[in-house]
Specification:
The complex is a heterodimer of chains A (217) and B (136). Chain A has 217 residues and is mainly α. Helix content of chain A is 50%, strand content 8%. Chain B has one domain: Type I PLP-dependent aspartate aminotransferase-like (Major domain) (Aspartate Aminotransferase, domain 2, 3-Layer(aba) Sandwich), CATH 3.40.640.10. The chains are: A mainly alpha (217), B alpha/beta (136).
Chain lengths: 217, 136
């Protein structure tokens, strides 16, 4: 993800103009020069894959959830060589994604709840296209900026703000990551509680509660 | 008690906080977070049940500052990622009392090093973290 490089290259005039020309143009000064695109390499690699049916067919199917095992293995080796951790990066540590922006959305889906998760703390100034991903995950009113100093993130500020945020969560009794709403055995009681608030809906809800009670019993 | 939206799933967890950072060559400030600060951030995340999501997408875009360098490319990262620190600091994600998910995840992308149009990247975290991502 990047402000400069990851935005889609606009398929408007500059790119189309290239089709009839050998001249390579910078399509926009925010985006990579088109001469940087490794088209011959990708062409060769794709050709290699599609020439072999045992590789081509699985490549065109859904494949394993975590991504192609060969890609994961090669990624693990490559990351080990680049970051030099004390032990090699194992392929179990890697999941292939649709890119960093898409995966940011996936991580928020997986590991946050817009009510239970208190805040999203963003080191600012921040990449502007990330904001909407957080907003779309339900954090519109819970985004908080954290300033940088010469060393990076301002730790004293972040710590004091997280403490305040935790105090507020305690006051609001926001202590459980998951409500009991999905425990079927508790549903009749919950519905009765709701029913008591509205006489007009009470009979219908009591009927549903009764049906659920007999189903649970 | 506030009502929550997500059903419980055996393979994932809900964190209390999310911290989003670009520790190397941050965009747009261009700053790189120091080693000390990276360690402090991991410890803070552990203390408050936070998930640090880092976009490590610029790590490979580095070159020598010398005007007459011996080599034009730098083949190793200058600092470990936050996900590397979380893997080892004080026993890592498997230390006593921890749930094994870790407190950090690294987002990587081929957009900056190959072509944005590939629309492919990867994430790295603990095996539990990577598995959960594969199930979403």
């Amino acid at each position: 993800m990047s402000i400069l490089l990851s935005r889609r290259i606009r398929l408007s005039t500059p790119v189309h103009a290239l089709l009839g020309s050998d001249r390579v143009l910078a399509n926009d000064n925010r985006w990579p020069n088109l001469s940087l695109l490794p088209i011959p390499l990708l062409d060769k690699a794709a050709h290699h894959v599609f020439q072999q049916k045992p590789v081509a067919y699985p490549a065109m199917c859904y494949g394993p959830d975590a991504g192609d095992p060969r890609l994961r293995k090669n990624m693990a080796q490559w990351l080990t060589n680049f970051y030099r951790p004390a032990d090699p990066v194992s392929e179990e540590r890697i999941c292939i994604t649709g890119g960093a922006s898409q995966n940011l959305a996936c991580l928020l889906q997986d590991f946050t709840d817009p009510l239970y998760t208190r805040n999203v703390w963003i080191v600012a100034p921040a990449y502007m296209l990330a904001f909407r991903i957080f907003e779309d995950a339900g954090f519109h009113k819970k985004l908080r900026a954290v300033p940088e100093d010469g060393q990076g993130i301002d730790m004293d500020y972040l710590r004091s703000q997280i403490r305040t945020s935790e105090d507020e969560a305690k006051t609001a009794n926001n202590n459980e990551p998951v409500s009991g709403a999905f425990d079927v055995s508790k549903m009749p009681t919950m519905l009765l509680l709701v029913a008591s608030r509205s006489q007009s809906d009470a009979i219908g809800l009591l009927l549903i509660a009764g049906l659920l009670s007999s189903a649970v019993d | 008690m506030a009502q929550q939206f997500k059903p419980p799933r055996p393979w994932n967890k809900i964190y209390k906080h999310v911290i989003y950072a670009v520790p190397a060559f941050s965009n747009p400030s261009s700053k790189t977070m120091s080693m000390k600060r990276r360690e402090e951030l991991v410890l803070l995340a552990r203390e408050y049940d936070a998930l640090i999501i880092t976009d490590d997408v610029y790590d490979f875009l580095q070159w020598p500052s010398s005007l007459s360098p011996g080599t034009l490319s730098i083949e190793e990262a200058s600092l470990p990622r936050i996900v590397d620190i979380d893997r080892y600091l004080d026993g890592g994600a498997e230390r006593h009392g921890a749930d094994g998910f870790g407190n950090s995840v690294s987002n990587g992308s081929f957009s900056k090093i190959f072509a944005p149009g590939l629309r492919t990247g990867w994430c790295e975290g603990t095996p539990k973290m990577a598995y959960a991502v594969s199930q979403t």
